[in-house]
Design goal:
homodimer; ornithine cyclodeaminase, domain 1; seven-stranded mixed beta sheet
Chain lengths: ~350, ~350
Amino acid sequence: MTENLNLVPFVSVENMMKLVNAIGIEPFLTGLAAYIEEDFKRWELFDKTPRVASHSKEGVIELMPTSDGQLYGFKYVNGHPRNTRTGLQTVTAFGVLAEVDSGYPVLMSEMTILTALRTAATSAVVAKYLAPKHAKTMAIIGNGAQSEFQAMAFRAILGVDRLRLCDIDASATDRCAQNLARFGFEIEKCASAQDAVLGADIITTATADKQRATILNDNMVGAGQHINAVGGDCPGKTELHADILKRASIFVEYPPQTRIEGEIQQLPEDYPVTELWQVMTGRAEGRASDTEITLFDSVGFATEDFSALRFLRDQLERSPYFENLDLLADPDEPRDLFGMLLRAETAERAA
Amino acid sequence: MTENLNLVPFVSVENMMKLVNAIGIEPFLTGLAAYIEEDFKRWELFDKTPRVASHSKEGVIELMPTSDGQLYGFKYVNGHPRNTRTGLQTVTAFGVLAEVDSGYPVLMSEMTILTALRTAATSAVVAKYLAPKHAKTMAIIGNGAQSEFQAMAFRAILGVDRLRLCDIDASATDRCAQNLARFGFEIEKCASAQDAVLGADIITTATADKQRATILNDNMVGAGQHINAVGGDCPGKTELHADILKRASIFVEYPPQTRIEGEIQQLPEDYPVTELWQVMTGRAEGRASDTEITLFDSVGFATEDFSALRFLRDQLERSPYFENLDLLADPDEPRDLFGMLLRAETAERAA
């Protein structure tokens, strides 16, 4: 996208919003989902490592690197549940894509919005393999920042068009319903999680508290439902009662990370789970019967961010919503970094 | 520096050069060295982890995170020795400083130039404790991108003003000498490393080849010299003959990393080394006698980048050489990310 070696294309929050709106939210999610699925299918190519986390009393800051051998990507992301009290986002993120052969960054982007999109797109891709056939109705328990993205992704990719919303904060449900109003969903606001899951083919849990919560009890989940558990995604933060896990077939992104961060942190370390890449490549079975309870224990993995950055980069070739960042030193002679500094001073004085 | 929550101050390469030149290279190095030393002295506060490396045939891409409990910093850095063949830098870098309590980035900066400065400043800080008293003469073997920075740091912090330069590429030596000409060093260009080390109080090795090289042989190093070994800094890349290591007292930044990346990768895993923070806090002895050979096995550690970002941030309060980057989403209502996206579209259409 640039011939100047020192410049790195940068997608700001403003440009990300322009890009998503220019492409359209549903087409963006559909396109992104295809990249995510493609990368899951070439899973074995990737350098995989659990994220590098720095925990503190208030939250966590994480770096999530991965590489497919040609491109390298990483995301910086924080999770600070109490941030909303001071008007800050619970989660913010940015990421970088680089060329493995040169080590040069080729794209930097905001990833707060992009992560919301990729998390939802991943859930929908996974549900293609696990949700009951012809699923039309989804319960969304927890109507915060992720909820509308989940709804849009399930609509775009699976055709889900009936929503049953529930949140302990009724104003969150109102806002979610209002934000989604223009997209033609049939929406029911529910007073309790118990109410919300009634008749739902898919149950999405996406609450934000950093604690062991029990959003879903065992008696609330019925035969054949698919649970898309998005909220339980760090040590000490879970949403489902352990008894549900024991009744369900559990599918995960990357077991070493999910065992630390996901719902299955409640289970023994060797509890059997199925890796999604194996389902997507046909090596393992997805949903086995109409009565099976399937569970996607989503925690978010580095390859999904990689897919998102890769998708973004390809969009920028058609939709130039980026600016160029003077991020890399580019002396005339590569080894003459000091000389470049001296010449800058001379140029400054002359100016 | 900014009251807008979505904006992150960004120091481009151009602004970094302006800032360094505005402050002056030597004062910049001296100030930076003070921050590095201060952070070494509060070493125990830091979250420390070996860097997270992604190795490929051509090089390595690394993430180096650390935190002192209040601030979190990380650096992205690549090392691709063959990059110079295509006019690219061997090493490029950028970094981020963030608040631990909120997870919000507060500074993003180019770090190609800043790393060159911090590497040199670290060497000079360490030499304060290890070099022979009243050292005036330094040999620099390897006159590439790091060489002038080393010279300037040793001049600013130790008063070294006589240089003996040597490189297998004579044009590199010429350029180094020319770049340093205006700073009043007494410079001797030497035809061989053997020649260069003669009469030197300090020997700096800073070559770039990614291989096991022998820049210094055992018979070239004499009693009382301090070796500042900068170039051997990744697995498979060393500069010194193992026999030198066995005669010297070896000082390192962070043993778990240096044993993998430094000169001491040639030695058994339990070979005794001294940690620099212990020397700087008086818990361990530095140079013990006039005849001791001391060796700083420099590989570069995350805390030094942290110190550099912290120093940079403080300079920006006085010298506003930065621009603001729209990196973080900042919806009016923290949980309403989707609504922000919708409103951006509405605003776009109205415009």
